[in-house]
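Work Package 3 (structural annotation) set out to generate three-dimensional models for the target panel prioritized at the project kickoff. During this period the team completed the workflow that converts sequence records into discrete structure tokens, so that structures can be stored uniformly alongside our sequence database. As a representative example, we reproduce one entry of 279 residues exactly as it appears in the project archive.
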Amino acid sequence: MNEIMNTSTQTPIEIALGVDENGMTTAKRLYSFLELNPGNFARWCKSNITENEFAEENVDYVRLFINEETPTGGKIQREDYKLTAHFAKKLSVKGNSAKAEEAREYFTRLEEKAKQMVIDRKQLSPQLQLMNMLVENMSRQELEQKRQSEQIKHLEDNQRALVDTFQTTTDKENFQSWASKCLSRIAESPNFNYGVGRNTKHAYARNESYKRLKEKWNCNLDDRVARAKGRAMERNPGITKTELNAINKLSIISGDKSLRPVYETVIKEMMIAYCVDAG
């Protein structure tokens, strides 16, 4: 379909959708173009793509793994999907906005061009038709090999992430740093669909970890934090606000030899539950 798309003469909608030389867009580009809720992207992909009984992987869509930079400057691997023009049009049909109508019209025109190309090819000599078929088969094989290579890398990265997760330390400060890093990765995982916005997601992840901890080991962290702050102010009336804020639930857990291994188990369970990617 190279004749369909000339990247040097792309229209605004083709640029917005990131349409490639094969007339394919990505789920993320289409979702953004349709102006849907950014916080629901992972859920939308699950219900409309991966769990869509009328969609077939490597036929209607191809799974991609993309390294993206997080707001904190780290790296996280996110999942995206290359969509054929036909499948992208079907996904656009579900919307009733002006953007959805624009996308449907564009992909319909693209399909019509593709059909016309098929008709034109049938008028070629048998030798040229065979050559075209061989080239297309080679392109499909290369695309599948690339997908498999990316999937293997994705699995290897996840294995390394889990190894890092299970290598904790008994040192209080290092344990607190390890737990904070893991919670950040959980909050930024595309599988963690709670809250909108970075700060809210991180708060949800922390709160869930404390809730899970309480289910395993009944303790009142709020009360323990309040008492610890009270003792700190008694010992040092001139304590700064920054020093006082450093006394929190995580610091209480990190300093308690009984709570720490239980919380460690909680973090590991959450990392696995949300299929956290390597950072």
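The radius of gyration is 25 Å.
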